[in-house]
Amino acid sequence: MEYIKKLWRFITPYKRYGYLNIFFNILYALFGTLAMVSLMPMINVLFGKAEKVYQKPIYEGVSGLKSYIENSLNYFITNTSQQYGEQTTLLYLIGLIISMFLLKNIFNYLALYYITFLRNGVLRDLRDAIYNKVLELPISYYSEKKKGDIIARISGDVNEVKNSMLAILELIVKEPLTILFAIIVMFSLSVKLTIFVFLFIPVSGLIISIIGKSLKKNSAKVQNEQGVFLSTLEETLGGLKVIKGFNAEKSFSDKFESSTKRFFNFSNTLLNRQNLASPTSEFLGIVTIAILLWYGGSMVLIDKTLTGGAFISYMALAYQILTPAKAISKASYKVKAGNAAADRVLEILHTDSPLKDKPDAIVKSNFEKEISIKNISFKYEDEYVLKNFTINIPKGKTVALVGQSGSGKSTIANLVTRFYDVTEGEIYIDGENIKNITKHSLRNLMGLVTQDSILFNDTIKNNLLLGEPNASDEELINALKVANAWEFVKDLPKGIHTNIGDAGGKLSGGQKQRLSIARAVLKNPPIMILDEATSALDTESEKYVQDALENMMKNRTSIVIAHRLSTIQNADTIIVMKNGRIIEQGKHQELIARNGTYKNLVEMQTIE
User: Which residues, 6 or more positions from 316, have their beta carbon under 8 angstroms from its beta carbon?
Assistant: First the structure.
């Protein structure tokens, strides 16, 4: 129940539906009890045991309410029987019973009708909140978490929380009120018999609580394992070419089946314990009814302290308690499962992003002077990948970063765009620390083309519009031409409206990369960051795209991370990196003349 407080902000917008549900559940419980009580006068008429009352009773206050209601009903039966006969009286009483049951079920429907809006509203808002949190959290968060586990939380776990919402309202309103109203009437019929019944209720409750103790733990195991096999599925779909190419189908199949086997075992344990609740509570209820039959029957047949009609109505009320009691035991298990699911959902929602904007962060709308990277060091975990790195990039200049894999080149791009924060040192744009600038406005100044062409299962047009949502088709086509992509896009069946498939799977590697470049061109930012942007292109495409990139980078500040050194010979400054440090820097010809690491790298690529 504690997690309801934590999720209260999601419930608040829909609380009116909760209040309406509670209101109609109160009416449901009341008329459910009245429906059972209305059986008593009918039985008395059937067996000729109705008390004759010839004078209309007078209301004498709350203390005499029970006698007033009984006498009024008996007066109506007596009067109607004298005027129209007992068969007509019986017909009226049957109509009364039908009306009570009809109203009970109408109110039950209305209660469920309104709770639907609360449950589905909370479900929608929870999913929206988790999705937005997924977008907000830094990239470093996902290097530790499995994507499939995140998917399991936003789908299965949130759904479990939704189901437990109804269970909680049943647990605290609907079923307890049904039991309460029934017990009040049972006390009014026979205090002695009701006290006798209550001797057995603690025993039943103890047995049911013992069954449910480990449900939260088992439910958490099921939900965690669901995250594991969804992660395996997500990895399989993402790496299908590699799996097939290395004949690793058996290995991945075994891994997936191992997870589903654990899921099978955990689910069986959980569901079997849940399934035990209903038969256990029903059996305990029937034992109580059997004892009631013996004890109450003696009150009717021997002591004569209870009428037959009252006893049958009492038995109906006692049996009516069984249904909500079973529902409460089931609901308590749903709440425990929902509690485990809520813990997993709240873990994401309560995760703080270390890259949050400061409360007084400024919005920077233009770039005027320079990017200044001052003495920065950075580590992903324990080992530093950058050490005391310092460079200045004046506006309009192109700086190229080269070096072996793992030398820290791409890390620079991640830090300038603030996908990560520096461990030590500072990065400034126009003299302003990027930590003091909103992430949105910072990234708005930059165009990013990554080594991996990240495209989405949508049309070419919609993929490019990520860069500039309001761009016209003409601007979009111009961007494609600059990136040398229009030559193949115009020949596609639907042109820019062609769907490119999952991750752009319908296109070649070079075509995907050129679309990524076109997306950055369309954004038209003052700063370009090219992280090995030409690495996926064939030789011919590389030449065309390189020309396009050079045209695009004129009068624009660029950070180019390059593997192919032939693409950065015209850079204003080339920085050679090794083990996170700068070992050489200068123009292409200067570095060649030094006869150092850069020249060795150029010669190795020339030989290749």
Answer: 36, 39
Give the C-alpha separation, 557 to 525, whole Å. 9
In 3-state terms, what secondary structure has residue 582? strand
Q: Which 3 state secondary structure label does DSSP give 470?
A: coil
* Residue 608 in this model has a pLDDT that exceeds 50: no
Q: Write out the DSSP string of 28-60.
A: HHHHHHHHHHTHHHHHHHHTT-PPP--S-----
Alpha carbon distance 501, 46 (integer Å): 75
DSSP 79-137: HHHHHH-HHHHHHHHHHHHHHHHHHHHHHHHHHHHHHHHHHHHHHHHHHHHHHHHHHHS
- 548 within a domain of the structure (yes/no): no
Count Cα neighbours of 454 within 13 Å in the Cβ-side half-sphere.
Answer: 8
Distance from the first to the final alpha carbon of the chain: 66
Residue 110 pLDDT more than 90? yes
**Statement: residue 607 has pLDDT above 60:** no
- What local confidence, expressed as pLDDT, does residue 102 receive? 93
Domain boundary among 295, 316, 349: 349
Residue 88 and residue 210 in one domain: yes
Q: Rounded to whole angstroms, how far apart are CA atoms 390 and 581?
A: 9
Better-scored residue on pLDDT, 570 or 48: 570
**Cα torsion 9, 14, 19, 22: sign:** negative
Separation between Cα atoms, residue 562 and residue 30, nearest integer Å? 76
The full 3-state SS of 334-368, as one line of letters, equals: HHHHHHHHHHHHHHHHCCCCCCCCCCCCECCCCCC
- pLDDT tens readout for residues 559-599: 888 877 777 888 888 898 888 888 888 888 888 888 888 88
Tokens 């494609």 sit on residue: 480
Q: With H, G, I as helix, E, B as strand and everything else as coil, classify residue 529.
A: strand
Joined together, the tokens standing for residue 320 give 């009516």
Query: What ranges in 528-587 are assigned the alpha helix state H?
Result: 539-553
Q: Report CA Rg, the chain.
A: 37
Coil, strand or helix: which one is 469? coil
pTM: 0.72
Using N-to-C axis directions, what is the helix angle for 308-349 and 249-301, rounded to 10°? 150
Q: Render pLDDT for 434-474 as a digit per residue (tens, 0 to 9).
A: 899 988 888 888 888 877 777 888 888 888 888 788 888 88
pLDDT exceeding 70 applies to what percent of the chain? 79
Same domain membership, residue 92 and residue 20: yes
For 347-394, the pLDDT digits (tens) are 888 888 788 888 888 998 888 888 999 999 988 877 888 888 889 989
> In the prediction, which pLDDT does 240 show?
66
Q: Which domain holds residue 426?
A: 370-445+528-538+556-582
Q: How many domains does the chain have?
A: 3
| DSSP 8-state code for residue 304 | -
Query: In this predicted model, what pLDDT tens digit does every residue of 528-541 receive, in sequence order?
Result: 888 876 665 666 66
The CA–CA distances, whole Å, from 376 to 391, 415, 528 equal: 10, 10, 21
